[in-house]
Specification:
Rossmann fold, 2 domains, globular, 9 strands, nine-stranded mixed beta sheet, binds S-adenosylmethionine
Length: 264
């Protein structure tokens, strides 16, 4: 399977991200929470992609830098924003170009962190903690392993399907599911998900990035442990609807969970 970086650097995927310009409800909630504080803050928008979040966060931040390891994403941001904000090629796992404590806020939006292996995720969390000053904020989202509808992704009738689909639709869906079973090396995806849940984290091919790369899924409990271990405190969680909540049952209604925390 292809490396995430090759996929993100493709013109097809970069252009797709470049066209996006909405803000997710939890991102808006986080932005509002930090709004009084952002004008004095240095912000790093890591994994900035096509600059979707730039439009909303950059005008509020005292100093804004967008970064991504995919050069084609950086080119799109530069074409979109000209010299208004700096954009730089940088890998979240090795941010040598940034000194310790050089930012007040790091954002890694839209599950960018889920393209890492477990070891790389730990490296990236350490690097993010290093470039943040004490008390600085880190916000990101991640795929929720306890999402109540996760097994439905691998069933013939997916979560969004209506009842009136053609035979061709079901044939395509069946083929897609077989392919995912093959990639995940499991015919019984429900069992695989249960196994991953016991570990509270794991990687799955779920058809993200056209099913060409695996995605890291994690429970909110394990994510909080990882954050604590890597020097973060005061962890808040937000559901996809934008509501802040620490309640598992509420969070588990969503495929993604948004996290906001502070460097210890
Ligand atoms: C799902 S896209 C999200 C893009 C953008 N943040 C948004 O919200 O629209 C993930 C982005 O993270 C970037 N990315 C993934 N791993 C990275 C890494 N190790 N270092 C820097 N950027 C990375 C990808 O190139 C991609 O642009």
């Amino acid at each position: 399977m292809l490396e995430h970086k090759i996929l993100y650097n493709s013109m097809e995927i970069s252009n797709d991200y470049g066209r996006r310009d909405y803000i997710e409800a939890p991102e808006k909630a986080i932005m509002e929470k930090l709004s009084g504080w952002l004008p004095a803050a240095g912000m790093l928008d890591m994994g900035v992609g096509g600059g979707r979040t730039t439009k909303y966060f950059a005008p509020l931040a005292g100093r804004y830098t967008g970064a991504d390891y995919a050069p084609s994403m950086i080119n799109i941001c530069r074409a979109k924003y000209g010299s208004l904000y700096p954009f730089t090629e940088c890998d979240a796992r090795k941010m040598d170009r940034f000194r310790d404590s050089s930012f007040d806020f790091v954002l890694f939006s839209y599950n960018g962190i889920d393209s890492f292996s477990h070891t790389d995720r730990m490296t990236a969390l350490k690097e993010i903690a290093r470039v943040l000053r004490t008390g600085g904020y880190f916000a990101f989202s991640s795929h929720n392993l306890n999402w109540s509808m996760l097994p439905d992704l691998f069933r013939l009738k997916g979560p969004d399907e209506d009842k009136h689909k053609s035979v061709a639709f079901y044939a395509r869906q069946g083929f897609k599911n077989l392919r995912l079973s093959y990639l995940n090396k499991s015919l019984l995806m429900g069992n695989l998900i249960e196994r991953l849940k016991k570990n509270e984290r794991g990687c799955l091919y779920d058809n993200s990035l056209n099913g060409k790369a695996s995605i890291y899924y994690i429970t909110s409990r394990e994510q909080k442990r990882q954050l604590h271990k890597n020097g973060f405190r005061d962890i808040m969680t937000f559901g996809r609807c934008g509501r802040e909540s620490g309640k598992e049952d509420e969070l588990n209604r969503g495929a993604w969970i948004y996290y906001l925390c502070r460097k210890r």
